[in-house]
């Protein structure tokens, strides 16, 4: 339905529709808001979230858990277009769908900006905000581009291509600007500002859209006849055929969207000084929209015509080649990760070259796939096919989230995360952990801390496999006591001695390789007689693992020592002293006092001597990590590419080309979605 005061039929004019400027402005601001928050999401979850409550340090989120949350969010964002299509095409029309869900979208940004405030735990604000943003962003996604097409009549339809070029420019301008800016806001002004600015931009986008209400053409919803027209026998058959292709494309999206998760985490351990710029950890993502703008004309006007002279590039063949390019891009980041695992600090340029390959794959898969989908869909199925195409993005991210969920081993930090809700002299269970809580007197403080005793493998308290967690009065975990603290400390001492003896200059000192370390630890065992396992995680990080009381590796009973090297940066010590503390450093110092300042200064290299610190935990490791993680995805997409070859060969195309006089809205949808999966 639509209100009678709004026009439902385009004006017969040769000029631009009056509502176009509002839609273009809305799209630029909306894309800024979405990419702004998404760019910093993984860094925020792993480094900032546990510091969001005043006076407390929460439980740090693991990389795999952050990846899982991130890909669940992306999956939800690309699932909700189905809801948006139903609302706009069946119930309330495009304008009301976009406006109402944009308000929901704004509330999601508000929830993120309020993290650390009263009412909810920071993690609860986070999940609420992500859900509302996914609902709002995903719900309007299939409506916005079609709404552009609604504004045109026959006389000005020749201007549609130009308008969609502006529309696509707005998308890339908004995403590029926010991908560069929001990491800077997060570093220097903190999460409230970094999430708040995208929220303000989304509010502006909503205001611009509302201001254009009297200029827009409001096409009414079709009601239930939509289903009769859409799901014909021919349409359903076309959908089933395309779904075979989409199943393969979903795997591509499962890898592509890791540029915002695992690639960001990898960048932390790379040399980010490149092209005269010190890149922040999540800023390298800005390369993708820039490359898209460069590679589309290169492929369209140079590569495709050149290849066509010797090898006919059908849509299926383009998609197939795109899969192999994606495999090559992940092979590059896997090799870079192997260097990191071996103690090197490779240049961020490794990721730049991987982005060139991956974005080339995106051009050949995403843009080609959208055009192919449109031509293979019957007239009444085109909007549904576009929603199903977006759903393939959701499926791919569900797969990636599932993998990251599956590789996580339960950890005792699950108990630590519940400490605030535990009263002294009580017992409880969390996941597979059984524990009891007692008060812990703290000298010089009126407030008691807490001691949580976790029953070990035998399920009994008071035995040698118990795990004891000590918390201060602010619920900060200060110590984890196990029967293997001493044996792990002795093993770590051997690693530290080898490190300090490896070179004279601190900058050249290196942790032992895994082969060297296993030789050093050959005569060392844990309290149960199990040998230790050593892993070098990066140039400055290592891990020593005891199999624990159950004697099995990679279980929740593993006792783990994590070591971190803090190098005295003599050359830059004065420069570091002149650099002000960023928001996170100030936050750590304000919460942890002198201990926090010592931690921050050590991380900055502002210490007189190089030192090694270590902490102990139980469980919580990932069964697939480092180079193995990236090689897993490389082989996954490579197998997908190989399997797609015979599928593509036997696929029988049937094109449904628009005849003159058919709905311009459908032409608009094809034009709009030609820009990639975020159009």
TrEMBL record:
Annotated GO CC locations: membrane
Superkingdom classification of source: Bacteria
UniProt entry keywords in alphabetical sequence: Membrane, Transmembrane, Transmembrane helix
Topology term for the membrane: Multi-pass membrane protein
Regions crossing the membrane: 32-49, 69-91, 98-119, 125-144, 165-186, 192-210, 235-256, 286-307, 319-340, 352-372, 384-403, 630-651
Pfam families: PTR2
Main location: membrane
A GO molecular function held by the record: transmembrane transporter activity
Swiss-Prot/TrEMBL GO biological process terms: oligopeptide transport
Subcellular localization(s) per the UniProt record: Membrane
Similarity comment: Belongs to the major facilitator superfamily. Proton-dependent oligopeptide transporter (POT/PTR) (TC 2.A.17) family.
The protein's name: Di-/tripeptide transporter
Organism lineage: Bacteria, Pseudomonadati, Planctomycetota, Planctomycetia, Planctomycetales
């Amino acid at each position: 339905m639509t209100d009678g005061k709004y026009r439902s039929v385009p004006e017969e004019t040769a000029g631009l529709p009056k509502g176009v400027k509002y839609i273009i402005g809305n799209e630029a601001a909306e894309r800024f808001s979405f990419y702004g928050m998404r760019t910093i999401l993984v860094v925020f979850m792993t480094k900032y979230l546990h510091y969001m409550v005043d006076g407390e340090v929460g439980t740090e989120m693991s990389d795999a858990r952050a990846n899982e949350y991130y890909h669940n969010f992306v999956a939800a964002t690309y699932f909700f277009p189905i809801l948006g299509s139903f609302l706009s095409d069946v119930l309330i029309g495009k304008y009301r769908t976009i406006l109402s869900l944009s308000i929901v979208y704004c509330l999601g940004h508000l929830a993120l900006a309020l993290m650390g405030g009263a009412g909810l735990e920071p993690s609860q604000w986070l999940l609420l905000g992500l859900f509302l943003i996914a609902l709002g962003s995903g719900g309007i996604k299939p409506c916005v581009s079609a709404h552009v097409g609604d504004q045109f009549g026959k006389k000005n339809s020749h201007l549609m291509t130009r308008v969609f070029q502006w529309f696509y420019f707005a998308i890339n301008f908004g995403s590029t600007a926010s991908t560069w800016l929001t990491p800077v806001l997060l570093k220097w002004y903190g999460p409230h500002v970094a999430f708040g600015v995208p929220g303000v931009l989304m509010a502006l986008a909503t205001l611009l859209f509302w201001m254009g209400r009297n200029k827009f053409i409001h096409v009414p919803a079709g009601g239930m006849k939509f289903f009769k027209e859409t799901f014909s026998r021919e349409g359903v058959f076309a959908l089933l055929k395309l779904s075979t292709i989409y199943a393969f494309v979903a795997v591509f999206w499962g890898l592509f969207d890791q540029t915002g998760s695992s690639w960001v985490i990898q960048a932390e351990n790379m040399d980010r000084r490149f092209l005269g710029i010190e890149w922040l950890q999540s800023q390298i993502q800005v390369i993708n929209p820039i490359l898209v703008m460069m590679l589309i004309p290169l492929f369209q006007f140079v590569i495709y015509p050149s290849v066509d002279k010797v090898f006919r590039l059908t849509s299926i063949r383009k998609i197939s080649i795109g899969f192999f390019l994606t495999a090559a891009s992940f092979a590059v980041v896997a090799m870079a990760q192997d260097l990191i695992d071996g103690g090197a600090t490779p240049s961020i340029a490794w990721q730049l070259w991987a982005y060139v390959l991956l974005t080339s794959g995106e051009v050949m898969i995403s843009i080609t796939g959208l055009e192919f989908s449109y031509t293979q869909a019957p007239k009444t199925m085109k909007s549904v096919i576009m929603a199903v195409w977006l759903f393939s993005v959701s499926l791919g991210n569900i797969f990636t989230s599932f993998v990251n969920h599956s590789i996580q081993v339960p950890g005792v930090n699950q108990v630590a995360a519940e400490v605030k809700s535990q009263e002294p002299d009580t017992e409880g269970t969390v996941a597979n952990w059984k524990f009891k809580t007692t008060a812990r007197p703290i000298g010089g403080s009126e407030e008691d801390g807490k001691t949580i005793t976790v029953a070990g493998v035998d399920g009994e308290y008071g035995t040698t496999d118990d795990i004891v967690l000590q918390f201060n009065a602010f619920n900060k975990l200060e110590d984890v006591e196990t029967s293997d603290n001493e044996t792990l400390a002795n093993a770590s001492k051997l690693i530290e001695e080898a490190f300090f003896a490896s070179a004279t200059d601190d900058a050249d000192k290196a942790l032992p390789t895994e082969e060297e370390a296993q030789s050093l630890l050959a005569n060392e065992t844990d309290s149960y007689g199990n040998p230790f396992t050593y892993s070098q995680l990066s140039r400055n990080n290592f891990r020593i693992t005891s199999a624990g009381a159950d004697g099995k590796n990679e279980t929740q009973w593993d006792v783990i020592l994590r070591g971190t090297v803090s190098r005295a940066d003599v050359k830059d010590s004065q420069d570091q002293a002149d650099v002000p503390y960023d928001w996170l450093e100030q936050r750590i110092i304000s919460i942890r006092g002198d201990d926090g300042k010592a931690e921050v200064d050590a991380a900055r290299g502002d210490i007189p001597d190089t030192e090694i610190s270590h902490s102990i935990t139980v469980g919580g490791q990932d069964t697939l990590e480092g180079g193995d993680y990236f090689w897993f995805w490389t082989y996954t997409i490579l197998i997908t590419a190989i399997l797609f070859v015979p599928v593509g060969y036997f696929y029988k195309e049937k094109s449904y080309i628009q005849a003159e006089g058919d709905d311009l809205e459908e032409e608009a949808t094809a034009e709009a979605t030609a820009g990639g999966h975020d159009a």
